[in-house]
Design a protein that fits this description.
Layout lengths: L2 H55 L8 H29 L20
Length: about 110
């Protein structure tokens, strides 16, 4: 084999190796970006679970979820208010209880007047 053929083959091999290297680098960068996104979201969950496990092993109980507690309290107050309003309207429709804001009959005892 002559030296020109050797150099030509050597250059072709180097060119092929360079292309393969560039493709490998591109594939690794793409995989790294995808993995970083997945790992970033999973890492937060892993930290949360690890803290919960340590707390459980230490005998500590979970604290109350204050946001949920506040939301349920507000929902209870609203349900109570709506129930009281519905009961007043139903009683007024039946004529059993005077409705606040309306004049009371003279026969109604003073304690039951609005």
């Amino acid at each position: 084999m002559s030296s020109t053929q050797w150099t030509k083959r050597s250059r072709e091999a180097e060119k092929l190796a360079e292309q393969a290297w560039q493709q490998l680098v591109s594939a690794l960068e793409s995989a790294s970006d995808n993995t970083r996104d997945r790992v970033g979201s999973a890492a937060g969950e892993a930290r949360h679970r690890a803290r919960a496990a340590v707390d459980a092993l230490a005998g500590r109980k979970n604290g109350p979820s204050w946001g949920l507690l506040a939301a349920l309290t507000a929902a209870g107050i609203l349900a109570g208010w709506l129930g009281a309003l519905a009961a007043r309207r139903a009683a007024a429709a039946l004529g059993d209880v005077p409705t606040p804001g309306l004049p009371a009959d003279e026969d109604t005892p003073v304690g039951l007047r609005a």
